[in-house]
Amino acid sequence: MTVHIGAKKGDIAETVLLPGDPLRAKYIAENYFDDVECYNEVRGMYGYTGYYKGKRVSAQGSGMGMPSLSIYVNELVQEYGVKKIMRVGSCGAISERVNVRDVILAIGACSNSKMNDIRFDGQSYSPTATYELLQAAYQTAEANGVDVEVGNIYSSDMFYQDDRNWYEVWKEYGVLAVEMETAELYTLAARHNIEALSILTVSDSLVTGEETTSEEREKTFTDMMEIALEIA
């Protein structure tokens, strides 16, 4: 076990679905896994392993923000041998191209985080998805009749920002949505030579003001979960 994950070696599958919300991990396990076992309850950050259509898969909460996700990804990869991580999270639309409940496959992630500034001594790094996972997710969505948008997203360290129009410049450059984790996931995937993809559901729109409830975000964003599970 590690400081933050109470699992033994072998308890966690090589493929992990990584929602920020631990209750979404619980929902995935209870509604999609067979022979499910809970391997982690440390800090309430639930982790489960089970089988989906005969494939061994885990679901692990990562918490909110890049520093929290970084802890779990580092431990999953370095201590438990995880090879493939798919974030299944929510995001806020900053473009008219996407609406509430739309699914986004994040090809890359801009960011205001200082984490990569520290890593790369102030130089810019462009975190990107694993192409094979991106392609497989797009093809799976198409086959299942799920409309998806593929594009750039923005990973922010700040949920509440004083400037209500902060996103306008990102919107002008084609960024679709804002969330808080993907840039770090893609950076760590490159560092550790693993596969990674963020599959995101739009939970609210900064453009229109429309939003969903916390329960809806936890339990009804099933399209992204099923896409991730199919390519696990």
Automatic annotation (TrEMBL):
Phosphate binds at residues 20, 24, 43, 87-90. The keyword Glycosyltransferase applies. It comes from the Bacteria. A purine D-ribonucleoside binds at residues 4, 179-181, 203-204. Residues 16-226 form the Nucleoside phosphorylase domain. InterPro entries: DeoD-type (IPR004402), Nucleoside_phosphorylase_CS (IPR018016), Nucleoside_phosphorylase_d (IPR000845), Nucleoside_phosphorylase_sf (IPR035994). GO terms for cellular component: cytosol. Its EC number is 2.4.2.1. It catalyses: a purine 2'-deoxy-D-ribonucleoside + phosphate = a purine nucleobase + 2-deoxy-alpha-D-ribose 1-phosphate; uridine + phosphate = alpha-D-ribose 1-phosphate + uracil; a purine D-ribonucleoside + phosphate = a purine nucleobase + alpha-D-ribose 1-phosphate. One of its GO terms (molecular function) is purine-nucleoside phosphorylase activity. The record marks 217 as: Important for catalytic activity. The active site is at residue 204. GO terms for biological process: purine nucleoside catabolic process. HAMAP family: Pur_nucleosid_phosp. NCBIfam families: deoD (TIGR00107), PRK05819.1 (NF004489), PRK13374.1 (NF009914). PANTHER family: FI09636P-RELATED, URIDINE PHOSPHORYLASE. Belongs to the PNP/UDP phosphorylase family. Catalyzes the reversible phosphorolytic breakdown of the N-glycosidic bond in the beta-(deoxy)ribonucleoside molecules, with the formation of the corresponding free purine bases and pentose-1-phosphate. This is Purine nucleoside phosphorylase DeoD-type. It comes from Halonatronomonas betaini.
